[in-house]
Amino acid sequence: xxxxxxxxxxxxxxxxxxxxxxxxxxxxxxxxxxxxxxxxxxxxxxxxxxxxxxxxxxxxxxxxxxxxxxxxxxxxxxxxxxxxxxxxxxxxxxxxxxxxxxxxxxxxxxxxxxxxxxxxxxxxxxxxxxxxxxxxxxxxxxxxxxxxxxxxxxxxxxxxxxxxxxxxxxxxxxxxxxxxxxxxxxxxxxxxxxxxxxxxxxxxxxxxxxxxxxxxxxxxxxxxxxxxxxxxxxxxxxxxxxxxxxxxxxxxxxxxxxxxxxxxxxxxxxxxxxxxxxxxxxxxxxxxxxxxxxxxxxxxxxxxxxxxxxxxxxxxxxxxxxxxxxxxxxxxxxxxxxxxxxxxxxxxxxxxxxxxxxxxxxxxxxxxxxxxxxxxxxxxxxxxxxxxxxxxxxxxxxxxxxxxxxxxxxxxxxxxxxxxxxxxxxxxxxxxxxxxxxxxxxxxxxxxxxxxxxxxxxxxxxxxxxxxxxxxxxxxxxxxxxxxxxxxxxxxxxxxxxxxxxxxxxxxxxxxxxxxxxxxxxxxxxxxxxxxxxxxxxxxxxxxxxxxxxxxxxxxxxxxxxxxxxxxxxxxxxxxxxxxxxxxxxxxxxxxxxxxxxxxxxxxxxxxxxxxxxxxxxxxxxxxxxxxxxxxxxxxxxxxxxxxxxxxxxxxxxxxxxxxxxxxxxxxxxxxxxxxxxxxxxxxxxxxxxxxxxxxxxxxxxxxxxxxxxxxxxxxxxxxxxxxxxxxxxxxxxxxxxxxxxxxxxxxxxxxxxxxxxxxxxxxxxxxxxxxxxxxxxxxxxxxxxxxxxxxxxxxxxxxxxxxxxx
Length: 807
What we know:
Blueprint: E1 4-9, E2 20-23, E3 37-41, E4 48-57, E5 71-72, H1 81-93, H2 98-104, E6 113-120, H3 126-133, E7 138-140, H4 148-159, E8 163-170, E9 176-183, H5 187-195, H6 202-213, E10 219-220, H7 221-228, H8 232-240, E11 244-251, H9 273-288, E12 293-298, H10 304-317, E13 321-325, H11 332-343, E14 347-350, H12 356-367, E15 373-376, E16 388-394, H13 411-422, E17 426-430, H14 435-442, E18 447-451, E19 463-467, H15 468-475, H16 482-494, E20 497-501, E21 510-513, E22 530-532, E23 537-539, E24 546-548, E25 561-564, H17 568-578, E26 584-587, H18 597-606, E27 612-615, E28 628-633, H19 647-659, E29 670-675, H20 681-687, H21 691-705, E30 712-720, H22 723-740, E31 746-758, E32 761-770, H23 776-787, E33 796-801
Helix pairs in contact: 1-2, 5-6, 6-8, 9-10, 19-20, 20-21, 22-23
């Protein structure tokens, strides 16, 4: 009997969320391996889909005739044994499709594209063959789509069953190549050619001598031109004479602007006593190959990065590899540069700011074992590193480590899985650990390591809280209090730099008519539009809808329109008016949309080409500029009013992190926080740098309300273009859950989501709170199966384990 392969196909539905059995054709019998991508026929037509081989079997439960695998798309597996096991675990724990989890682990260029191909299956006259098909048996359907006459002929042939339309998969993964040269003659033959040259043919003589030195090798032509001191035309002559041939040479796309020389690597820094104690504990776990989780809690500027670097060095010295995660793209430039200065060409970087080609090449360097250290954002947790010796997760409290759409994984949980698989320690680092992590450290589940002092021996910067209520009464509406303006002016006089954070991009929050009170809303979402002056448009930050700024109210046609709230654009405009001498860099989603703009703006600020860095929360974390002595928070209340149980924790984290950007070198720093809620405990505890008091108070509130870390949570969400349909679907799910779950499990809802309508769909949610419930996982899997069935037409249901917010 022929060998049979188990293939997970690229058709994301619950009905296809298990492997299908395919026959392995004899010509592929010895080529196929688990983890390879294949093209397979699927369904009744000529449709070809991509799939992943996940195993082999010698029998099939299916009674009909098995279809054969069409083609192998790889010469070696793209998913190794570890990642295949991880994908299966991920699909189960995040209630996702197995195929989606496999794709999440791969760079975009390994996701294939289907093309429609027209293929002749019966004879046609010669003129038709040449007019329609260019004399070939097949061609792409897209060639006919812009020519109605040809399309009409093609449809006639289809009716006569002379052609069929096939779906053909194309592999988008393309290695970048440059022109290279290789000698075609032996050393002796090249010598004979040289002796027969005209005495004046100096360039050709030099070319032949150079070719003798590279017999049997391939060399980039640019390198050959430089070494042999010859022009491209001489190499073209050599190719015409049959001395050499041009060949493609594969090169990696370089995501770094400046290369790091491996012979000038940075030496490790001297550690203080607290750092030494932390490094000693972690290094012991690396040596013991122990899958311990360490919570490294260190104040901002306490030297956590140096601890990471020295423990990475330990793993490399033992012949193992290292993975370091950072939360956001804006953090990556400075940290990546530090890691690269320490470890040189062994470092690969993975994040969404890279082009598809750069991602693919970095992924291949890792997969081939040429990169031993990976630094990257959330998805880098799937980097195909072999023999991991240490995993590091910097700023572990960050919500960006949680994926918002399927598969809804948390990078921390994936890192823990890989830590156990490789028996490698995991370091979770933060100045303000998440309540869940700190609670686990207190219970002994994690090992707590502390760095309570800054490495520069400077105290944490003093924080002044400015109550904006009397300020507004005294000075009218402004984004700047008098103390903040005076502090900014003082920094300008001293030629020191400042960072200003406002957690909102755009110009104004919303537009309202003063006559009728109408607010200009998005037609697709239950949210107001934001004014953007740079594009002179009103934009929705949820669905991307954009429309011109209205001159009159769309409701009552009044011209009395006013813009309320404030955004980074408006602040920049006001700052230019108040401090015209200040050079300002604005950093938000709008100014950093183009590739490389994060790095460019931060480099300009680091080179002191600006006095003030104004930005959203992307500037709050991980930045280290020695000349920054002032940090100002324009409105600390932005996140406090959100209907979310983590609102206070997120505000405390953000304020503590941004405060830590001041006074990181030898100059004394200062922080000014403007707020309308000066008595809120999150702001008062930030002012005194008191994480412990905040932790106790927040844990007490979570205990009373029954939220994490005292309970685990799951959120179910249903959406539909009609509100009643979404509500009905959720009511049905609620009944089903009530019948199956244990009495101690709490089910809240269904209720409309905080933003009830988005992208023309209404959303209803249920929140489940539980401590232990053996019935929950099978019940949720059952709901997932049912909601794929026809009875749930156009109702989309998602399940989010451990959601970071309920909005």
